[in-house]
Design a protein that fits this description.
The structure holds two protein chains of two kinds.
Chain A lengths: L8 E3 L5 E3 L9 E10 L2 E11 L4 E5 L6 H8 L7 E6 L2 E2 L5 H7 L1 E3 L12 H9 L7 H5 L3 H19 L16 H14 L4 E5 L7 H18 L2 E5 L3 H7 L2 E6 L2 E6 L1 H6 L1 H14 L4
Chain B lengths: L1 H28 L6 H18 L4 H24 L7 H23 L4 E2 L10 E3 L2 E3 L1 H23 L1 H11 L1 H6 L4 H26 L2 E2 L5 H14 L4 H22 L4 H15 L14
Antiparallel strand pairs in B: 1-4, 2-3
Classes of the chains: A alpha/beta, B mainly alpha.
Chain lengths: 285, 290
């Protein structure tokens, strides 16, 4: 396990702690008592989180623990049965998926969901959709504004792709990219929506150790360049422990532990529920 | 022979323009808008009222017809289909058939069942004489319109942000929403474009076959739907290809085999194509994502 720089945490009123450096801005995400039932089954219950404006948080837990469900709640793919989600202090109650994205949450997917038939650049431009400033008639008749805004979008797309050194692949169809590049493109597409909070669902899945290492550096780079918060779900413990400042452990839809990487690693509950069963069978992952 | 070819392409172009409406709506909203044929009929009546009753100049009459159909298409979508966005496809299909009957009966109430004789709205275009063959102004207008529409639509979907959003929604509605795309607005624009095209198809159709009754749109609507399926529903070039092929097939079947059997031959061809290529000529193989 790599050397961990522990972040100094302070309590905020509400559901948790945020890093001291983010105190001025307040938490970007606060969720309290969040829960959802599917029929009689409680999939997630009493989920509480506070995330600082530039914090990298981790969400871990065994398969089926409800991690992706939490992402789906935060992005309103599912409407929560209970609880409150505040984004930058604003209640997201009643918002739909599109509005939540426009308010500042972007995400990637566990099973890649790129727009396969579109080019790499057009995938990024879908993310840029709301920041491209011309109306449909201007596009139909190719008014000057269309050319100006398309040019701007093109440059912005290349600039974003360049974070992962993918600018030269701009014209390629998304489906023909190698697997790792597709994962990176999903991150770029999400970033293009200009989020305050980026949710990454297993960003390192299927990557080799050197790719994972590069991904860690890139996630930090994204956080520093854009000044945004990142919450990630990941099974790769090197990545989680190496990059996350604060980790939440879920099991059976409930939080069983919360804390810094070193606290989590030594937490007996976690070792019992998660590492105890998973680490032995999932050794090769 | 050449005469039939030209007639076939002309008829096929009308089918193609109608089929584009079916295919775009199917590609993006994943529903069969069976009321599409009746929007064509309304387009015909709108142009007729503006042109023949009110005496507006032809371009204004055509624009008025496009405007009426665009608004009508968006209204149908908002009132009839939007509340069913998450319903089963069967419920949406039956609603579409209901809308179709509603429009036909509304036209029956307003304009009665007496056929209206539609003035040729495109006669300002000169017809061309090529030796023994005369290409009528309607034929020229129809072919030119379909080519222009095809090019414009391709440019729109490939190069503009709304076009790209439409393609994204067609591929993965959920992911598009999570990227901040307003799916409802996108579907609304799709209906607007499809219905606007239906108005143009209505004017062209009625210029070629000048009898306008409330059921005018039904058969061309079904044929164009066949054309869209033949070409691969959801595919824009497929709708174009399917339309032209269907027009040619119908014309040649009428000319050389039997006028009465021509429709049977057309639909028979559809069945054969679907047995060989279930996704249509240019349709893509659909693999369900897990």
């Amino acid at each position: 396990m790599s050397e961990i720089n522990e972040t100094k945490y302070v309590e905020v009123p509400g559901p948790g702690k945020i890093p001291e450096r983010d105190m001025g801005k307040g938490p970007v995400l606060e969720a309290s008592h969040l829960g959802i039932d599917f029929g009689g089954l409680t999939a997630v219950d009493e989920f509480n989180i506070a995330l600082g404006a530039t914090e990298i948080g981790g969400l871990i837990g065994p398969n089926g623990a409800g991690k992706t469900t939490v992402f789906n709640l935060l992005t309103k793919v599912y409407q929560p049965t209970r609880g409150v989600i505040l984004l930058d202090g604003k209640d997201t109650h009643g918002m739909n998926t599109t509005q939540v994205n426009q308010a500042g949450i972007a995400r990637t997917f566990q099973n890649i969901r790129l727009f396969d038939k579109l080019t790499v650049e057009d995938n990024v431009k879908i993310g840029l959709h709301n920041s491209i400033g011309y109306h449909t008639p201007a596009g139909v008749f190719r008014l000057p504004n269309y050319w100006k805004e398309e040019k701007k979008a093109h440059n912005k797309a290349l600039e974003l792709l360049d974070i992962f050194g993918m600018a030269d692949m701009a014209g390629v169809k998304a489906s023909s990219l190698p697997y790792g590049a597709q994962r990176r493109l999903e991150i770029v597409r999400a970033l293009a929506t200009n989020p305050k909070l980026l949710l990454l669902d297993e960003p390192a899945a299927g990557m080799n150790p050197s790719e994972t290492e590069e991904l860690m550096n890139n996630i930090r780079k994204i956080r520093d360049t854009f000044g945004i918060a990142v919450l990630l779900i990941e099974h790769d413990m090197n990545l989680v422990m190496g990059i996350c400042e604060n980790i939440i452990v879920l099991n059976f839809g409930k939080i069983i532990a919360k804390g810094t990487p070193s606290e989590i690693q030594t937490n007996p509950k976690v070792i019992e529920a998660y590492l105890g069963s998973q680490a032995t069978e999932g050794e090769g992952k | 022979m050449l005469n039939y070819l030209i007639t076939g392409i002309s008829l096929g172009s009308v089918y193609a323009i109608i089929a584009l409406g079916y295919t775009m709506v199917y590609g993006i909203a994943k529903m069969l808008n069976f009321a599409h044929g009746d929007v064509i009929m309304i387009g015909g009546y709108a142009a007729f009222c503006a042109g023949a009753y009110m005496g507006w100049p032809t371009p204004c009459a055509i624009l008025f017809s496009v405007f009426v159909c665009t608004v009508l298409g968006m209204m149908i979508e908002k009132l009839a289909y939007k509340p069913l966005r998450n319903a089963t496809s069967l419920a949406v299909l039956i609603t579409a058939i209901g809308v179709s009957y509603f429009l036909q009966n509304m036209a029956l109430l307003i304009w009665t069942s007496n056929p209206k004789s539609f003035p040729n709205m495109v006669s300002f275009i000169p017809s061309i004489n090529l030796g023994s063959v005369t290409i009528s102004s309607t034929t020229i207008a129809t072919i030119a319109a379909s080519v222009i529409i095809m090019i414009a639509l391709t440019l729109f979907t490939e190069k503009t942000k709304m076009g790209k959003a439409m393609r994204a929604v067609s591929e993965d509605k959920g992911a598009a929403q999570l990227m901040g795309i307003n799916v409802n607005a996108t579907i609304s624009v799709t209906f607007a474009i499809g219905s606007g095209l239906a108005a143009i198809a209505g004017v062209l159709l009625c210029s070629a076959y000048p009898t306008l009754v409330p059921t005018t749109g039904s058969l061309p609507g079904i044929k164009a739907f066949t054309a869209a399926v033949l070409g691969g529903i959801g595919s824009i070039p497929g709708a174009m290809l399917g339309g032209i092929l269907l027009g040619l097939l119908e014309t040649f079947a009428k000319a050389y085999i039997s006028t009465q059997l021509s429709d049977a031959i057309v639909f028979g061809a559809l069945i054969v194509v679907l047995i060989v290529r279930p996704t249509g000529l240019l349709g893509k193989k659909i693999t369900e994502k897990v």
